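Dear colleagues,

As part of the handover before I leave the project, I'm documenting each prediction I ran so the next person doesn't have to rerun anything. This entry is a single chain, and its sequence is reproduced below.
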Amino acid sequence: MTLPAAVLIAAAAIITGCAGNVNERLNSRASEEYLEPVRPGYEGRNPFWNGFATKFIYAPAFGFPEVEGAARYRFTVEYLGTEMVQSPRYRADQPVEDPEPRWILGEGKPDGRCWTFEAAEPTACLAPVWNDIPVGLVRLTVTGLDGNGGILGTAGQREFLRDFPFHAPYNSNVRPYIESVKLAALYIHELPAIRHWLTSTTPDLSYRLNTYACKVIGSTIRMECLVARLMPRHREEAELIARNAARFLMDNSRPADAPLACFPPTYYGGLISSAREENQGKTMTMEACYVGNAFLDLYDLTGDRTYLDFAVNIARTYLKLQAEDGSWPIKVDYETGEPVNGCKAMLTPVMEFFSRLQKQYGVEGLGESIGRAERWMRETALASFDMTAQFEDMTVLNQKPYQNLTECASAPYASWLLKKEDRTPEETEAAVDLIRFSEDQFVCWDVLPGPDGTRTMMPPAVYEQYGYRMPIDHSTAVMAEAFMDLYEATGDRLALAKAKALLDNLTIVQNALTGQIPTSLDVRGGAKEPGRGFWTNCTFASVKALLRLAEITGNE
């Protein structure tokens, strides 16, 4: 061996060893953190929130009642295995054109392995045995014991997935982040339904998701503004697309004298969920924020005050709709503005929109409203820890507390708290709790293989919500943004490593030939693949997160 070759090999060994040591430290810290339960109800800060939860990364604690006369409680965790079975649809209202069944854990049978410990209360967390339990389906049984160790009765029983922990290393990005961003943005820019806007001020409904006007058409505007900024040679076309899409939204918004003045429609064209009776003539309150931010992006690009003024008018309508307690309803009648029920929206979107109007454009009269919204989020949403989903293609009717939780509510709220200039230690603690909850319930650092020995998704990935347990790139982006906010606020290297692992995977699943980042990160083959949906708003969230990671890491 020549001397230069020996030096190179030695240097590579040192680098590999250093990386290995870093990963070992990160993994060890993650393992320790997973022994701390997420906002357990026994602390008194909030009720037990996990009645509908089916998986845990952090050691859980459950709100089991006491057994009369019990002196202590025995916790027994039985291992039920890893057998996967094909499930029917995850949600009753899933569109008929997407009937793809999913692979989930089967009922399982005890294989003889079990872990036990005793505690003074039936609500104790599983930390004493948690890191000893392998990934798989488990059954927890808590029994009350008398003073002599005799069994008095069962306090409670739960079955759930003991999920994969974070364990580096993960696959690194396969191309620079900025290149992934440009490829994904150009993929959107070149879609026929997007280029349709070059000559039209009405949407191409052959791309059926244009039926969700605020979300999808609003994100189309934002993506085209990004294309114009990042790739100037496409600016003329991108600006025209954005202006025509904006014209459609303005033309179809409520008139200036209406209760919902200047609010664009959540639903348009009667397709997919827009066709459901419960959605006809209704609108999701927070979705106008998509369009408000899109118009601000377009104003930044063009300098045309038409778009800034329209965004401000949307904000003025929000001010009129805000309740005395600082809240907004989750869904209202599009003509009258009357709520469809008592369900309240998660308010981070409007707080962020108002804050942007204040800080970037000097719009006055919004500070008090932000303060009231913050108070409602702190005293109601955080105090209950009920981070309710608010998706326009999911029902908000007849929802029980905690029935449909989502990291798309909890993680952005954590980001809001971490970005506050006057953040208190209590707000930092709350943000960390929200991020830990989001990871615990929705992040999949790995996934068990199906019956064929192949994994059913491309991990690491993030589920969208309880009502739709599908790994979605938008959810990956939202989760990564929160991890990056935690890193920038506190210097937490583990948080940055988690963000990087999630976003690096988007560059891996990105189609190398077309640039498309798939919306769902589940594995489909053959005839199943053409049925995969594709949401432009999800791609926009992904490219925003990738751009930010490029800035943090210097990987352009």
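The longest strand covers residues 151-162. Residues 43-162 form one domain.

All the best with the project,
I.
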